[in-house]
Amino acid sequence: MWCGKGAERLGLPSDLTKEDFVAIANNRIPQSGDRLTARTNDKRTHIVWELEEVTQSRVPKEKEVNNRRVCVDFTFSVPKSVSMYLAKTKDEEVEKLIHQALRETMDDMEAAIQTRVRIGGADYDRVTGNAIWAKCIHRTTRPVSGRVDPHWHCHALLFNATYDETEERWKAAQLGNVIANKGFYQAAFHSRIAEKLIAAGHRLRRTERDFEMDVFTHEEIRVFCKRTKQIEQLERELRTQLHRDGKDFAEAIREKMKGEGMLGAEDQEIARLESCDLSEAQKADPTNYEVGQVVECHRRLKGDLRPGEQWEVTKVLSEAVVVTRNGREKLLPLGQSKEFNVYYRDTMPIAVGEHLLITKNNRRANLRNGDLRQVQAIDGNTITLDNGYKLDASTPLHIRQGYTMTSQASQGHENPKMFAFLPVSATSQINAVQMLVSLSRASREVRLYTDSKAVLREAAIKPGKERQRLS
Predict the structure, then answer these.
(1) Which long-range contacts (CB under 8 A, 24 or more apart) does 296-305 make?
(2) Among 223, 426, 430, 458, which one has the highest count of C-beta atoms within 10 angstroms of its own C-beta?
(3) Where exactly does CATH 2.30.30.940 map onto the chain?
(4) Tell me, what DSSP letter sits at residue 28?
(5) What is the pTM of this model?
(6) Separation between Cα atoms, residue 259 and residue 101, nearest integer Å
(7) Integer angstrom CA distances of residue 228 from 235, 261, 458
(8) What is the C-alpha to C-alpha distance for residues 257 and 265, in angstroms, rounded to an integer?
(9) How would you label 314-340 residue by residue, b for 16+ Cβ within 10 Å and e otherwise?
(10) Across-strand partners of 325?
(11) What 3-state DSSP class applies to 287?
């Protein structure tokens, strides 16, 4: 259905038709076919990297790409237990409460809509407070292995058009602030749902991230989360790709240093740990475990698993995870997932002169997460660092190569030169705060490498999270 003061101004009926939708998407007024906003800008020339068949290498090529932002899709979803409740009971009153919470949230977003003012040399944004929304409701997930789960969600498409009362014409909307605050609006939507459900007499319970209706247990909810698990796996793969890029750069740098005699001649392979980046809820679910992973405890756990001990995952059962250490088998107490972390085991070569990045605090060796240290000597499993402290490499260490790091990990470090790799695939991680952190790491020279300058420019001016601390 159509929503918003902009839709009302155009006289759009509440029922959404394909013809009206296509007209608005093509920047046309449905009834007359006249142009809606002054400019369309359908295409622009852009440099893209494509695989060259003969050399099997990526080469830059000029291509025409879409230039116009038609709309932005804001997806509002309810907690899983609410979707399950609606699927089971078909409770129209609860669904009506959800629609009320959604409309109130969309009204807040509409009130923040702006447009650019450029007349007479001006250069600022003016609040218009009106928008054109297309709202589409879905009640299930996309199929996973041919099956769908209950998942009530709304695709609220906010079109790139707003009416400027001062200039008396339709113009492109300035959506940066609304997009930057989408997390806030999603939280406000959930808060409103919770308030309305409680007022209607429903019992809720607080979770790590949000709330759930008290009519389903955690285990029952996890049964209907196949799509969530699929997305979580994809997110981990995206992060893995960024780290893989860094690893490739580091290997090239290291090979050059070897050739220049900056590293010792002999390498020693050591074991290291890489975090699986699992949340507390994910660590409580056996489906997120793999044989060969390593579990390390923060505190003493049930079954006498002690702080600092490393246990290897040897069996993954439907409702349990078995870990082993020195020939002893234990059931991992998943209910204490807050008290341990899960890691992948990896290996890496090191030599005298090697630069290492510490990835976990180590009080005994006077090391902190994020410290950069250099290897001074290697004697069997004993690695001596430039601060005089020694590491025992007989067990996997919390280290990785120290030649590249993420922008977040670079905080607190300063070097004469900084080279940053900012691919299009990482634009979700790029914003104004991240760029400031990256650019301020160098005291003399900065170089930025990207496969699209245009995309990087747009991503680099996005507002970042204000709570992120700068150093």
Answers:
(1) 296/340, 296/341, 296/343, 297/339, 297/340, 298/339, 298/340, 298/341, 299/339, 301/333, 301/336, 301/339, 301/340, 302/333, 302/336, 303/330, 303/331, 303/333, 304/330, 305/330, 305/332, 305/333, 305/340
(2) 430
(3) 266-402
(4) B
(5) 0.51
(6) 64
(7) 11, 49, 29
(8) 11
(9) eebeeeebbbebeeeebebbeebbebb
(10) 328
(11) helix
Contact 80, 212 (CB under 8 A): yes
Class assignment of domain 266-402?
A: mainly beta
DSSP 8-state assignment for residue 298: S
Q: What is the DSSP letter of 427?
A: G
**Nearest to residue 346, comparing CAs of 294, 383, 392, 298?**
294
Rounded to whole angstroms, how far apart are CA atoms 114 and 164? 9
The number of angstroms, rounded, from the C-alpha of 77 to the middle of its chain's C-alpha atoms is 17
* Residues 227, 142 contacting (CB under 8 angstroms): yes
409 φ, ψ to 5°? Answer: -70, -20
Furthest-apart CA pair in the chain: how many Å?
A: 82
* Residue 7 dihedral angles phi and psi, to the nearest 5°: -65, -40
- CA dist 383 and 373 (Å) reads 11
How high is the pLDDT of residue 381? 93
What is the model's pLDDT at position 467? 39
**Which among 176, 172, 205, 152 has a CA at the least distance from the CA of 67?**
172
Per-residue pLDDT at 468: 40
In residues, how long is the chain?
A: 471
What distances in angstroms separate CA 1 from CA 4, 15, 27, 226, 403, one per listed residue? Answer: 10, 5, 18, 29, 53
Residue in this structure with the two tokens 């893995």, named with its chain if needed: 240
Task: Kindly tell me the sign of the dihedral angle through the C-alpha atoms of 217, 223, 226, 229.
Answer: positive
pLDDT at 341: 95
**Which tokens belong to 2?**
């159509």
The pLDDT of residue 470 is: 35
Other beta carbons within 10 Å of 363: 7
Count CB atoms within 10 A of the CB of residue 189.
22
**Closest to 438 measured CA to CA, from 458, 414, 456:** 414
* pLDDT for 421: 78
Tokens of 160: 């790139």
Chain centroid, CA 257 distance in Å: 34
Own/partner contacts of 28-34, CB < 8 Å, gap of 24 or more, are none
**Which residue pairs from 21-30 have beta carbons closer than 8 angstroms and sit at least 24 positions apart in sequence?**
21/134, 24/132, 24/134, 24/159, 24/161, 25/70, 25/71, 25/159, 27/68, 27/161
φ/ψ (deg, to 5) at 108: -60, -40
pLDDT for the residue 91: 94
Averaged pLDDT in 10-residue chunks for the chain of 471 residues: 94 92 93 85 58 63 66 92 92 96 96 92 92 94 78 93 95 89 91 95 84 82 61 56 68 87 92 90 88 93 92 91 94 93 93 93 86 93 93 93 74 73 73 79 81 78 54 34
